Amino acid sequence: MKNLFICCMAVILAVNVSYGVSCFWNNGDSANNYWVNPGNWDNLPTSVDGAYFNSLMPGDALIKDGDSAVAQNVYISHNRHYSDGSPLVLRQTGGSLSIGGQLLLGVADANAYGKLIMEGGEINVGVAGGLSVFVGKTGRGIIEMSGGTINTVSNFDVGGAYSGSDGVFNMTGGVLNVGGALKAGRVAGAKGRIYISGGTVNATHLYHDYGWLPEGDGLVDVSGTGEIILVGQDKTKLENYIANGYLTANGNNNDAVIVEYQEGGEWYTSMTAVPEPATMLLLGLGGIVLGRKRS
């Protein structure tokens, strides 16, 4: 698993980082809302272009099975939201999205509200030594992930670069591979929430603060079948995060299961949550049923 993760990061690092033109989504083709349809853009993005989702035309942009979408940077809501308060949405159910630079949600100001719904396929985001993903950079951003894989070369920040930003990452399935640090509430005045109730997050680091920035309002919660795996022996650090309320399991500071282990000569630290009583009951009933079937 870790070798695959390293290979994914190496592939992303090779992406060209030059910049082309700004391409704006307009959902202009009434036949469909597919990213790969040139009729839905003023210019269809290439691998060196910026892809802007800032149109208030109704309908989510969609990447589906068999599609290959590319861009240098992706901006989901530069400075807009719908009049009813709902976000501008990019949905991926399959296929691939390759981003040479950054993925940014809720970008320019407090009016910006962007949402990514990740249900399947693969997203690769790569800029070496930088910030790969901002969920709520200046405004609001949400990623809802129930399947597929997201690979980032560098950091994955939820609740972002400026005071007043608000980000949520809600994971119920799939795999998130973070080549740098996972962080909620990056700066003072920013709010970030990470909820992992299913799927797996592999990250090099989990940070409460970066050291040179005042910490924001951050929370990371693991529940259900969700798991965080970090590189290194981080048990003590995670226990400290639990003690100060930054890290929880099942919404409290008593249910975390933290294990340090070696694999291929490398140390890793895993965190899961103690199953809640209802889950334990279901597991127990399942065991009884299996026992009866075997007898």
TrEMBL record:
Keyword Signal applies? yes
Q: Which residues form the Ice-binding protein C-terminal domain?
A: 273-294
Signal peptide location:
1-20
Top-rank lineage group of the source organism? Bacteria
User: Does the keyword Signal belong to this entry?
Assistant: yes
The alphabetical list of record keywords is: Signal
InterPro entries referenced in this protein's UniProt entry, alphabetically = Ice-binding_C (IPR013424)
Name of the molecule in the record: PEP-CTERM motif protein
| UniProt organism field | Limihaloglobus sulfuriphilus
Its taxonomic path starts at:
Bacteria, Pseudomonadati, Planctomycetota, Phycisphaerae, Sedimentisphaerales
